[in-house]
Amino acid sequence: MRITWHGAVALVSAFVFWQSLSADAIAVNCTSPASIAATESAAPDATAGMAKAQTNGAAKQNTARVPVAADLSGEWAGFYVQNGQRTPFTAQFSGRPGVFGGSTIESNSFADPTATHLYAIVCGHTTPDGVVTFVKTYDGTGGARHSVQYQGRIDETGRTITGVWVIGSTRGEFILARR
Fold first, then answer.
1. ∠ CA(11), CA(85), CA(123), 5° rounding?
2. Closest CA to 120 of 148, 150, 85, 161
3. To bridge 78 with a disulfide, which of 65, 89, 118, 176 should be the other Cys (CB 3.0-4.6 Å)?
4. What are the extents of the domains in the chain?
5. Whole-model pTM?
């Protein structure tokens, strides 16, 4: 299923520079209609909070650039922090510079305890100045069916992404490193 321009904009709503991209640059082919629907219904407050968090930190961050929009294809490992607890997760991304999709797996830290792991679909993009934005939508394992919006920045080596995740008014930090 090919996402329309409006669907792609909704998919990457946390991205504050979307007006400078062509429709082809952010056309993403996600396999889960549920992930698209969940993204389109994401709360505007969440994306505004992520944009604010990214803007507030911009003056402090290194201005070094990845030469072109990063290609995040490959395996990544890291964690997110919620309520002071680190939850490790791995991600497998594929795509082309600027646009990517993939999946994640993590230990179950919040859903039905009969599920040992949680799985999600990811759709996102990168920009030449190193901004990485994606939406992670859980597949329903253990009853987890919600979406989480992530916005971060890839370092100048293209090997580490750090940023903020948001679900409604709940937020926390995350880090991913290329394996």
1. 15
2. 148
3. 176
4. 5-178
5. 0.67
- Where does residue 152 fall: left (phi above 0), alpha (psi -120 to 50 degrees), or beta otherwise? beta
User: Quick one: pLDDT at residue 64?
Assistant: 55
Q: Please work out, in degrees rounded to the nearest 5, the angle formed at the alpha carbon of residue 78 by the alpha carbons of 159 and 66.
A: 20
Residue 46 Cα distances to 9, 14, 39, 157, 160, angstroms: 15, 8, 11, 29, 23
The Cα–Cα gap between 53 and 66 comes to: 21
Contact predicate 108/118, CB 8 Å: yes
- Residue 92 pairs in a beta bridge with 75, 103
Query: Which of 112, 106, 60, 61 is CA-nearest to residue 81?
Result: 106
Q: What six digits make up the tokens of 94?
A: 């594929």
- pLDDT value for 68: 67
83 CB-near residues (< 8 Å, 6+ apart): 172
Q: Convert the pLDDT of each residue in 126-159 to its tens digit.
A: 999 999 999 999 999 999 999 999 999 999 999 9
* CATH 3.30.420.10 for domain 5-178: no
Instruction: State residue 69's pLDDT score.
Output: 84
